[in-house]
């Protein structure tokens, strides 16, 4: 199944017939369908669609929307528009301009892990991040959404307050559940990896290889690491629970010391619960 996925990824700009792909692998069309969904969690058609949309997102930043549509493998603009809103979250025109027209409100606050930023669209929270100071946090947000309108929220209320309280509670013996809505776009594979992270019990860790095996993709540890590194929701998607196979702690986008602190608190809470 990994070979089939790699083929679809490499030929995202082409229309691959499922029958031809199955024949090249020496299996039936039905076996390919079932095996692909079991391993990757989506159908070959959905996987291919995700790849085309991902390619479109990259190409549209470098040129005209029309050229990107065809270069990414969409036969017409209508085919793109049928698929774009669900995954891209904005129209192709807005994507080309880096999200121009999108309003993102944010607040910075103190937390047990240092300065943090919470950002949200009208649909939900799109970012939870830590940084050395407020300026660095806002600049990082601007890097993710270069053409969106960033507006500092007037008060720590609603989703902002809930997110700040959620993060603070994770450093205690009684963590809260996140009840605020999210507005994060991700590929099908990223969604599977992030879901696997959220299923790791508090106080435990998993290596990238172990997560890959749990997903039925034992050779995809590097891809898993990449998906973990792209997580925009610190603590809520607990990427700090992913470690190297030798047990070493590294590779946390918000700083290794924060990762160590989070893990220490979680392990301590788990130990106390046993007594």
UniProtKB/TrEMBL annotation:
It comes from the Bacteria. This is methylated-DNA--[protein]-cysteine S-methyltransferase. The keyword Transferase applies. The keyword GTP-binding does not apply. The lineage of its organism: Bacteria, Pseudomonadati, Acidobacteriota, Terriglobia, Terriglobales. It catalyses: a 6-O-methyl-2'-deoxyguanosine in DNA + L-cysteinyl-[protein] = S-methyl-L-cysteinyl-[protein] + a 2'-deoxyguanosine in DNA; a 4-O-methyl-thymidine in DNA + L-cysteinyl-[protein] = a thymidine in DNA + S-methyl-L-cysteinyl-[protein]. Residues 2-98 form the HTH araC/xylS-type domain. Belongs to the MGMT family. InterPro entries: Homeodomain-like_sf, HTH_AraC, MethylDNA_cys_MeTrfase_DNA-bd, MethylDNA_cys_MeTrfase_DNAb, MethylG_MeTrfase_N, MGMT_N_sf, WH-like_DNA-bd_sf. GO terms for biological process: DNA repair; methylation. Its EC number is 2.1.1.63. One of its GO terms (molecular function) is methylated-DNA-[protein]-cysteine S-methyltransferase activity. Keywords: DNA damage, DNA repair, Methyltransferase, Transcription, Transcription regulation, Transferase. It holds the Pfam family DNA_binding_1.
């Amino acid at each position: 199944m990994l070979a089939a996925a790699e083929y679809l990824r490499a030929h995202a700009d082409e229309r691959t017939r499922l029958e031809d792909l199955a024949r090249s692998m020496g299996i039936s069309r039905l076996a390919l369908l079932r095996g692909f969904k079991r391993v990757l969690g989506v159908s070959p058609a959905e996987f291919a669609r995700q790849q085309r949309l991902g390619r479109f997102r990259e190409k549209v930043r470098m040129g005209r929307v029309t050229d990107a549509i065809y270069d990414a493998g969409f036969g017409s603009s209508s085919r793109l528009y049928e698929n774009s809103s669900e995954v891209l979250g904005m129209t192709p025109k807005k994507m080309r301009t880096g999200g121009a027209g999108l309003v993102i409100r944010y607040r910075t606050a103190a937390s047990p892990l240092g300065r943090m930023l919470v950002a949200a669209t009208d649909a939900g929270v799109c970012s939870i991040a830590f940084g050395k100071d407020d300026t660095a946090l806002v600049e990082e947000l601007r890097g993710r959404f270069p053409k969106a309108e960033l507006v500092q929220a007037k008060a720590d209320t609603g989703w902002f307050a809930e997110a700040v309280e959620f993060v603070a509670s994770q450093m205690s013996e009684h963590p809260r559940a996140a009840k605020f809505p999210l507005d994060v776009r991700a590929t099908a594979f990223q969604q599977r990896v992030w879901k696997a992270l959220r299923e790791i019990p508090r106080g435990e860790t998993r290596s990238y290889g172990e997560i890959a095996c749990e997903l039925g993709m034992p050779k995809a540890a590097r891809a898993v690491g990449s998906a973990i590194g792209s997580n925009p929701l610190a603590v809520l998607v607990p990427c700090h629970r992913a470690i190297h196979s030798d047990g070493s702690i590294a590779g946390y986008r918000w700083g290794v010391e924060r990762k160590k602190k989070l893990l220490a608190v979680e392990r301590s809470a788990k130990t106390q619960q046993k007594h």
